Amino acid sequence: MKIKKRTIALIFYFILLLLPIYWMLNMSLRTNADILSTFSLYPREITIANYVKIFTDSSWYSGYINSIIYVSINTLISLFTALPAAYAFSRYRFIGDSQMFFWLLTNRMAPAAVFLLPFFQLYSTFGLIDTHIAVALAHCLFNVPLAVWILEGFMSGVPREIDETAYIDGYSFPGFFVMIFMPLIRSGVGVTAFFCFMFSWVELLFARTLTTTVAKPIAAIMTRTVSATGLDWGLLSAAGILTIVPGALVIWFVRNHMAKGFAMGRV
Amino acid sequence: MNKWEDNKAWFLVLPVFVIVAFSAIIPLMTVVNYSIQDIFGPGERVFVGLEWFKEVLGDPRLHEALMRQFLFSGLVLLIEIPLGIGIALLMPKKGWGASLSLVLMALPLLIPWNVIGTIWIVFTRPDIGLLGSFINGMGIPFDHTASPTQAWITLMLMEVWHWTPLVVLLAYAGLRAIPEAYFQAAKIDGASAWAVFKYIQLPKMRGVLTIALLLRFMDSFLIYAEPFVLTGGGPGNTTTFLSIYLVKIAVGQFDLGPAAAFSLIYFLIILLLSWLFYQVLQNAGKGDA
Fold first, then answer.
1. Which of B101, B102, B211 is nearest residue A150 as measured by Cβ atoms?
2. Closest chain B residue to A36 measured between Cα atoms?
3. A153 neighbourhood in chain B, CB within 8 Å
4. Is A202 in contact with B112 (CB distance < 8 Å)?
5. How many percent of chain B have pLDDT more than 90?
6. Which is deepest, A231, B27, B73, B262, by most CB within 10 Å?
């Protein structure tokens, strides 16, 4: 009986969670004129014209490709630099460790508006404007600190006796890290990968400032749906539904790492 | 936990330091530079000292925006953190239910922020939006563009809808990382569900909850795109948060000096409060766990 109550509460939450997304899906399958003229709980005449437009117009679909490229680069850089750093913070005491650890997070605390101009200047000095790597690097500013913080939390949850035993057993540091340590913190790695992907995917200001045409992200292209006749809600909704898909795939792939947690018995 | 003392650990941290410092240090120096100069054009600038800081600190509209910001972030933390933990506890531990819950939970987080605002405009419209027409149908005239209270309620709903899943995902991952042995021990001792939560789950989640709380605090304090798109800071100035006001100065009036001074003050407020949260949460766990 108790389990049933929990399930009902959870389902109720999910219904509320999905309503705005359902509304977006509903609009994406209708024409703009239809959306603006009638209130309808479901699309009476389903049209896929909005999706067809996005998949056939290269100025639309290239936005998805650009976003996926720089978000993937960013997620990889963030994870690979943050893993050793998080290990250092969770296991060692060294000069300036706690200051450094907190300094990392301060990079998420600055309001973007005024920083955009110097950012643009910095990246043009290096000739990086309108490249995918520029956006990937800029997003490291907030994703690397986040990755270090999340991973450090998970790593500190692993008892240090495990490290010591492994070293006594003759494991080298890289061998221990990959073969023993990584499996123990994989739920943390899964969460981190998803959060890096997500924050980079939805960020608009840096991505828009640092790109012009070649690497323009989808979020910036979506602001263009405003035309002389007002907003094209149908097209915007279809694009919105499609922006959810790549991230949903990412979390689908990391779901097992998140769900399984860590099994102490295996060591 | 006693850590090993070894300064060679710096080599493990170095890549992170380099990659973050590359984007962080020069722009920050530039903004500090702006904040103490009056800029007329390229090459024409005059040192004005702390003039801009005085101007910004004496601005009554900034004080109002700051109060609004405190109220907003305070409400966000009070609602989202407990709700997020509660939902993470409700979620199934394994099987297809767990997979499905995780994927559904992530959906609101994956929509670009400007699009979130746009979708909520239409979602809350009384004529063609689901929420707007539902509230209207209950006999309550709903128009968040006219009523400040309704604008705030709409913003909070949007914010809670959008960001609670972040807390849930972090809390859920934290819960899954607790070794099963703890629960078995608690079961043998005949511990109640509340005791398990208070003495095992909550202390073990301290790390992820610290991150969740800091993230929600920082991001809600910096919130820009969603309220800007949804309410544009209105009606009147009732939902003009700090960053909306900042952009008004920086872009609208193109006062780079005061805007830079404003940014630095803004940054320092977040820094100070985050530091306090961090210290409190670090010490909160020292007694137990």
1. B211
2. B128
3. 174, 207-208, 210-211
4. yes
5. 26
6. B262
